[in-house]
Amino acid sequence: MKIGSVGFFFSTRNVVNMEIFSKRSYFDFDILIFGIEQIRQKMEQGAAPDVSLRQKEILGMLELRRTIIVLTYPFQMSWLFPMSSAVDFEESVGQAIEMRGGPDNLKVFWNSISDFMVYTTRWKEAGLGTPFLFVKDVNSVVGSIIRYKGGHILFLPTLNFAPKTRGREGAEGCFLDAVNNLAISLSPKSVRTELPKWSLNFTWEKLEALARDWGMRHRQLEEIAKAEANSESLHAKENDLKILIAGTGNTLEERVIEAVREIGFNAEKGEPGRDDLILEWNGRFAVVEIKGKKKSAGEDDAAQLEKWVSGFYLEKGIAAKGLLVVNAFCETPLEKRDQSAAFPHQMLDYSVQRGHCLMTTTQLLGILLKVRQNPEERSALIEGIFNAVGLYPDFSDYKTFLKLRDESEPKS
């Protein structure tokens, strides 16, 4: 059976992973798995999606006798699934789960998956289908099943594929096999007659028209899926630029490298344990030290940069510009940072005497966005970096190139 997962990510290729915001039709799947914890986290990052179409598709799937698996979390789920909004969920985490009653197919299913389950949610027995999983020795429900219009919704504990003898891949395969077998046993379908190959030689007008229509729609869906995947990839890559105003460590360094290359520099990583980055532009060189800091930059950062500049000269015989790029106060929201305090006064004399340029990663983002907007200014902006001594003077006010998101728009 074809399985789709909304929210919960499976590494196996046998599952199509989707976000709650995805437009992929649920009717493509025989079984749908919903990870409520991940869906809630995604919704908290952006505006709640319009789920009216999803509600209709879920009802349609149930009418088609398909199976829906819900990995529960303390979050009101009646906004998506046909269930009472009065169900009282409470947060509680544990692994001591026992099955009480239930048909043989559910027992086989539970015996296959119990090693991977941990409950994060409990609810009262009434109001959510037929309970079959309980906290051990306690009358708190952690799993139940609803039969609805021929289909089934299983509310289960969530998955915890902690490293075991089988490994995550083996554990995922075991769980998905169990889900597949349960769905078959819950909604057995009549055996379809296998037509002989010679019957393919015969057709008629309506059959041909339906085949053409099916083929056209299948191609359209493939094109939409490819376009959606490409759009999602481009959005994720662009959104990663926010690491310039929020990141630290290797991820910050990688984004800085991508940014300076797009600005127009030739950029190469320095040797391990030495300068973070070497820039070249029209025969001029810059040695870059990149820092993500909870507080401001300091004299030790400038001294480290000067060490790299001197080392570059001794090795290459070429004078290089020292460029200190710092994401200062990285754990403080941008609008609450004191931009002028990123490079305190006591380090300025040292850096000015050595011709260093001191720049925040936020300013670097401003330069990148300016180059995109006005490519003809690329050379002047790069010259400005080489010519700046001490504090880089431009793009110090982030409000000139960043804007606050409209609350009515989805978060990105």
Percent helix range: 25-40%
Helix segment count? 11
Which parts are unreliable, with pLDDT below 50 for 5 consecutive residues or more?
Answer: none
Radius of gyration: 29 Å
How many DSSP E strands? 17
What name does CATH use for the topology of the largest domain? Rossmann fold
Top-tier CATH class of the largest domain:
Alpha Beta
Descriptive tags:
11 helices; eight-stranded mixed β-sheet; 412 residues; 17 strands; alpha/beta; Trna Endonuclease, Chain: A, domain 1; single chain; Rossmann fold
Walkthrough of the structure:
With 412 residues, the chain is of the alpha/beta class. The protein has two domains: 186 residues, Rossmann fold, CATH 3.40.50; 160 residues, Trna Endonuclease, Chain: A, domain 1, CATH 3.40.1350. It is 38% helix and 21% strand. The protein has eleven helices and 17 strands. An eight-stranded mixed beta sheet has the order 2-1-3-4-10-9-8-6, sandwiched between helices. A six-stranded mixed beta sheet has the order 12-13-14-15-16-17, sandwiched between helices. It starts with a strand and ends in a 21-residue tail after the last strand. The model has no long low-confidence stretch (mean pLDDT 87).
